[in-house]
Amino acid sequence: AQTVTQSQPEMSVQEAETVTLSCTYDTSESDYYLFWYKQPPSRQMILVIRQEAYKQQNATENRFSVNFQKAAKSFSLKISDSQLGDAAMYFCAYRSGGITGTASKLTFGTGTRLQVTL
Amino acid sequence: KAGVTQTPRYLIKTRGQQVTLSCSPISGHRSVSWYQQTPGQGLQFLFEYFSETQRNKGNFPGRFSGRQFSNSRSEMNVSTLELGDSALYLCASSLRGAADTQYFGPGTRLTVL
Fold first, then answer.
1. Which of B3, B44, B70, B108 is the most buried (most CB within 10 A)?
2. Which chain A residues have a beta carbon less than 8 Å from that of B94?
3. CB-CB under 8 Å, B98 with A98
4. To the nearest whole percent, how much of chain A has pLDDT over 90?
């Protein structure tokens, strides 16, 4: 079974600074997808970024980028120019890459609560 | 395009009762997945429906069931509620499941007294 580990329960960053959230995962599969989701106090889970394991290039979405190290099974999220609205719980998630039903399941880490200070 | 909607947003029930939660996916999405979020267990996968068929199931007791209608709307039912069923229940939809990204609804907060 796949597992996802987020070892930082809480992180803090000053506005306009850069912060990196860590995520490691364990899998024996070669085809999979990795995601970062953000859950603000409203509790709505919002997709931040997605990475396909077969792509060597790290995904980027505006101020958000990932450092995907497939051999090390590491998938960290970098937030640049942090804003107050970035304050939220961030979840790393894994999904199998197959086309069968089991591929629909997301396995989540325990989350990292990000505080953004002035 | 409207996002995933869930009703009701909040629910209070007592032990032993049953509850039904509803999820309407993004238009055109045929896969609906359900997750339970609790402080102790985190986010756990309940089940996934695609074209009215349950395609994948998590490790939950049989008290948790679901179904999907021909318009892709899905319902989740919990019978004989227990205190431990208090949680945020999140629904997510995707085009076909599998490799497609899941988009989440706002959740239903269930409190069991």
1. B108
2. 104
3. yes
4. 80
Those residues with Cβ within 8 angstroms of residue B54's Cβ, 6 or more apart along the chain or in another chain:
B47, B48, B66, B68
The SS3 call for residue A103 is helix
Half-sphere exposure at residue B84, Cβ-oriented, CA atoms within 13 angstroms: 7
Q: How many CA atoms lie less than 13 Å away from B54 in the CB half-sphere? A: 13
Written as one letter, the residue type at A25 is Y
Instruction: Give the H or E element holding residue A23.
Output: none
Dump pLDDT digits (tens) for B52-88: 999 889 999 999 999 999 999 999 999 999 999 999 9
B56, B90, B94 ranked by CB distance to A45: nearest: B90
Which residues in chain B are closer than 8 Å to A46, comparing Cβ atoms? 104
Cβ atoms of B26 and B2 within 8 Å: the answer is: yes
For B50, which residue in chain A has the nearest alpha carbon?
A: A101
Using left for φ > 0, alpha for ψ between -120 and 50, and beta otherwise, residue B98 falls in left
Centroid of chain to Cα B56: 13
- Comparison of pLDDT for B103 and B97, the residue scoring more: B103
Contact yes or no for B97 and A103 at CB 8 A: yes
- Regarding beta strands B74-78 and B64-68, do their DSSP bridges make them parallel or antiparallel, or are they unpaired? antiparallel
Say whether B45 and A107 touch across the interface (CB within 8 A).
yes
State whether residue A103 sits within 8 Å of chain B by CB. Answer: yes
For chain B, strand residue ranges (E) read: 5-7, 10-13, 19-24, 31-38, 42-50, 53-57, 64-68, 74-78, 87-94, 103-104, 108-112
User: What's the CA gap between A57 and A51, in Å, rounded?
Assistant: 9
